[in-house]
Amino acid sequence: MSHNLRMLSSDSSLELSLYRDQQFNGSNDELEKLLRESSLLYVGNLSFYTTEDQIYKLFGRCGDIKNVFMGLDKIKTMACGFCFVKYYNRADAENAMRFLNGAYLDDHILRMDWDLGFREGRLYRRGGSGGQVRDEFREDFDAGRGGLGKQAEAHDRRGTHKRKKSSGLAP
After folding, report:
1. What is the 3-state secondary structure (H, E, C) of the chain?
2. Are strands 104-105 and 65-72 parallel, antiparallel or unpaired?
């Protein structure tokens, strides 16, 4: 009898976002098909202090993890607030998407999305500062995200957050 039961509504936690990888060369239909088959998750809005071990422990509750790739600042080669989590199968990745998207880790709300697959070079941030583009537009100061954003720029100008190197010339 239970094999006749069907969901009456879609599971909104599994829907694809509007984000499209600019480096994908195929059609939107091809991209959507690949994303619907993927077992790789992009996890964003991590604290810069979140460790790979924390990711394995949290995401391992949803299934068997194949790999975790921590995002790195391409200039500093330090963790920069995102990672990729690769599961052995789609069902475990769906569990993670259902139960962990929007969860708190290190006082940050996790932002998750389906991803096509890890490629060499994708572990580096894409922003102009070596960081994530999202951080360059944030209005708040968040030390857990590297202190990036508009308010960090104001701190820098006033010299209250970090000092810029002096040229040695008098003003």
Report:
1. CHHHCCCCCCCHHHCCCCCCCCCCCCCHHHHHHHHHHCCEEEEECCCCCCCHHHHHHHHHHHCCEEEEEEEECCCCCCEEEEEEEEECCHHHHHHHHHHHCCCEECCEECEEEEECCCCCCCCECCCCCCCCHHHHHCCCCCHHHCCCCHHHHHHHHHCCCCCCCCCCCCC
2. unpaired
pLDDT digits (tens, 9 = 90+) for 10-40: 566 678 877 777 777 888 899 899 899 999 9
Lookup: tokens for 8: 């009456």
To 5 degrees, how large is the angle CA 160–CA 166–CA 171?
95
Side-chain-facing half-sphere of 103: CA atoms under 13 Å = 13
151-163: per-residue pLDDT in tens? 445 544 445 444 3
